[in-house]
Amino acid sequence: MSKLTSPIFIVGAPRSGTTLLQYMLRSHPDISLPTGESHFFIPLLRSEKEYGDLRELTNIRRVLERMYQQSADFLDTDLHGITFDIEQLSVQIHKQQPTSMAQLISVLFTLNAIGDNARRWGDKTPYYVLHMKRLLEQFPGAQFIHLIRDGRDCALSMFQRKHDFRTYNTFFAAKYWEIYVEIGQTTGREIGPDNYHEIRYEDLLENPQTIMKGVCAFLNEEYSDSLVNFKKSGEAGKTPLLQQPIQKQNQTKWRKKMSASQIRTFERAVSATLRRCHYPVTTDAQALSLPTRAFWHLHNKAATHYYEWRYPR
User: Fold this and answer.
1) DSSP-based helix, strand, coil % in the chain, nearest 5
2) How many angstroms separate the CA atoms of 43 and 253, rounded?
3) Going by C-beta distance under 8 Å and a sequence separation of 6 or more, which residues neighbour residue 222?
4) What is the DSSP letter of 310?
5) Which residues are CB-contacts of 138 (< 8 A; sequence separation ≥ 6)?
6) What is the C-alpha separation between 98 and 130, in angstroms, rounded?
7) Degrees, nearest 5: CA angle 271-275-276
8) Running DSSP on this structure, what letter comes out for residue 32?
9) DSSP code at position 231
10) From residue 23, how far is each of 134, 151, 211, 238, 242 by CA, in Å?
């Protein structure tokens, strides 16, 4: 198997528009990106020692079985270059004699890229923004595209799936967003511009060609108009906006859909991060008191416990 170039990771806070970027970038003729989110890289890298010598067929099979237990939908429907047949893939991966979990994962995604007639593979799993250093250590030369969206719009979107994200008030949503953005930016400065590239969702909507040319320059890939005129999703289960051209108006929804109280709370919680990312702050944004912050943390914790008690897994 020929050695492909370094992998690409699309990362960011939840509901930041990473799926749009995923569909745009996977339209590049040389890049293979699954259409879902893997989620298994970090758990498998952490538990690598449990699987023993990964050159052995039995251990490779165990890893693939664990992948499937965690991410069956992704492996069944979002890998478009291969069929996730554990027995067949175990044999194919065994031939490459991987000596680490990262190598095993890379072989799997390489096989998928070859099936996609692409020479480079990538992955879009937003929470990997919290683990970029580990991924760079395991996948030398990996490149990360960090997509940042106005946190108030992220919050609105998170509230639509509040039980998934366990986000039950505006303050907690603000801090959730801030943690992802700050860790991403801090790590990005540490790993440097060859491995980290930051873009804003709003800029992608307003000037998609300019932004994607910058992305391609970062990746050292030729720009193609196919990135802007990307292949839309025809699947009902995918994000509805991906079945349409780029929607420039899909931004600043918070101005109309957030209450004045929500806007004030959000801005008081994370005004410095909003300003650093060049988003307007519309209130005095005085810092919230310690008792107020503690109250909102406890509120979110109580709401989470109630939901998990009411709907146990």
Assistant:
1) 60, 5, 35
2) 35
3) 30, 216
4) H
5) 45, 100, 101, 102
6) 26
7) 115
8) E
9) P
10) 25, 22, 15, 11, 8
- Residues near 39 by Cβ (< 8 Å), separated by ≥ 6? 70, 71, 74, 125, 127
Q: pLDDT at position 226, please? A: 87
Phi then psi for residue 144, to 5 deg, are: -115, 130
Count of alpha carbons within 13 angstroms of residue 219, beta-carbon side: 28
Torsion sign across C-alpha atoms 234, 236, 242, 244: positive
State the pLDDT at residue 238.
53
Alpha carbon distance 242, 230 (integer Å) = 9
d(CA 19, CA 73): 16
* Residue 214 identity (one-letter amino acid): G
- Full-prediction pTM beyond 0.90? yes
Token pair recorded at residue 31: 């890049």
Check residue 243 and give its pLDDT.
58
Task: Please check whether residue 167 is in contact with residue 154, taking contact to mean a CB–CB distance below 8 angstroms.
Answer: no
Cβ pair 106, 139 in contact under 8 A: yes
Please state whether 9 falls in left (phi above 0), alpha (psi between -120 and 50) or beta.
beta
Mean pLDDT by 10 residues, the chain (313 residues): 73 94 93 95 97 97 97 96 97 96 97 95 98 97 97 95 94 97 98 97 95 97 89 52 68 94 96 96 92 94 92 84
pLDDT for the residue 3 = 44
Count of residues in the chain: 313
**CA pair distance 133, 168, nearest whole angstrom:** 30
